[in-house]
Amino acid sequence: MIIPKYWAEARLQHRERKRQVTVRRFGWSDVSLEEAQAHADGRVREALARVLAGEALPRRDRRVAYNGSEGVPIREEIVERDGETVITRNGYGALCLNTPNVFFADIDFDAKPSGRTILIVSFLLGLVVFTGSRFGLEQPLGRSILIGSVVMLILGYATTTILLRLRLALAGGYESLAIKRIRVFLKSRPDWRLRLYRTPAGLRLLALHRSFDPREAEVKAAFDALGVDPIYARMCFNQNCFRARVSPKPWRLGLPRLRSPYSAVWSPEHAALPARLAWIDHYDRSSVDHASCRYVETLGAGRIDGAAERVQRLHDGMCRAERDLPLA
Fold first, then answer.
1. Residue 151 sits in the same domain as residue 214
2. What span, in angstroms and rounded, lies between the C-alpha atoms of 88 and 102?
3. How far apart, in Å, are the Cα atoms of 101 and each of 4, 97, 210?
4. I need a labelling partner for 172 at 20 to 30 A (CA). Which of 41, 75, 156, 164 fits?
5. How far is CA 25 from CA 14, 88, 165, 307, in A?
């Protein structure tokens, strides 16, 4: 996990006859802005050389804080450090806990069918309509194919979503199904110990029994078995860390998002901008009576790792997880 203090950006342009190539790259450092600039200069020179050699590389680093970026560390304001744990303020203003080795997993209750399921249901729906049109109504072959295809395209996703919601309802709801999946997961892992939390949009798990490398095979297997949000799973792998939001989303408090500086890079000077400080003050006062998640129960009988327990205490305190407050 790397969350640098200083950021810079470098740009190089190459012109050759009618061809023009422009490449931009970030650089970062925990030491100084000058070191970050030197790093950016080195990265952009290497990238331009590879592009000119014919390699298909992106012309610029993606301007995102962390999600989905590859090879670029988290670009956020560092608010606090506690050992290896780093608290940052994300792009819309909430505080996030970043840890290199304490397992967090988010399970969202957003019931969206998979692409494969949509294709299967759409095909079966189209086949039923085609069969009814062709053999029940005795329509011409071409017209029956057209009707089946139109129904498949228009109603396939909606039908799949309805069937998924019906299945969830019969199983007792998404939360019941998710908790059942967690208990099944733990049956074959007697050494695991998980703290379970309720979030505004789902569940959160925190492992207490040992530390984890975010890229180890057991983490991926656990994410897959538990039904972890795929965007969160991808972030953990790409950024080589686990992450948990520990303060409310501003729009759940009736506040606008924090407007970060337009600059593609983070600078410590941004933290002192008057408008930013005013927003943070308003946000902090509005957050006092809300929690980011609520502790539910501890599952599994594994031992407690001291380092994981320290992160758990920091997380619970910042989230107000053991107080009876509205979730946001």
1. no
2. 16
3. 18, 12, 9
4. 156
5. 15, 22, 45, 36
Structural Rg of the chain based on CA atoms: 25
CA dihedral 89, 94, 95, 101 (to 10 degrees): -90
Alpha-carbon span 280 to 68, nearest angstrom: 26
The identity of residue 104, as a single letter, is F
In this structure, which amino acid lies at residue 89?
R
- Is residue 72 in a domain? no
Q: In what order do the strands lie in the sheet with 202-207?
A: 104-108, 202-207, 194-199, 294-299
Q: How far apart are the first and last CA of the chain?
A: 27
- For residues 97 and 205, state if they share a domain: yes
Give pTM, 2 decimals. 0.78
**pLDDT by residue (tens digit) across 265-294?**
567 788 888 999 999 999 999 999 999 999
Q: Which domain holds residue 179?
A: 80-110+173-319
